[in-house]
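--- STAGE predict ---
source: upstream dedup step, 1 unique chain passed
mode: sequence only
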Amino acid sequence: MRCPNCGARMNKQAGVCLKCGTKLSQIQTASHQAVKQARAEYEPEKVVYTTMWPKDLSCRNTLLFCIFLGLFGAHYFYVKRPIPGTIFCVGWSIFLLFYIIAASLTYGDGGGFPVFEGDLQIVAVFISIIGALVFVYWIADIIRIAFKRFKVPVVLQTK
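--- STAGE serialize ---
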């Protein structure tokens, strides 16, 4: 099996990772709720990212958030990962806003798909790339959550 903390190969019977020293029992009793407190106390070294889902976090709810609101980063906010959540939200919002405005401006000219010219074409390509990247990462997140390969922050229990 692989260590849920660092990803190195570990012997499940030994119950400890030889690379990072994380004990399997620590991961199994880890707390997701303590992440907010550890970050508020400026102790980020207590927070580790693992693929082993803690008992106080629902994989099913995370998957539902990802499927229905994932393009806006809701699944990242749910698991207390605000930076990638903000990137998703801002990236997809810019993409949607640009194309809604472009569609409304060209709709008055007889409708159809918006055609961009000049400098606006460069902006449209750049914003389209941002939207495509967010979309691809969203699909990848759905797959990672479904197969429990999505990393969630937890605070390891100490003895």
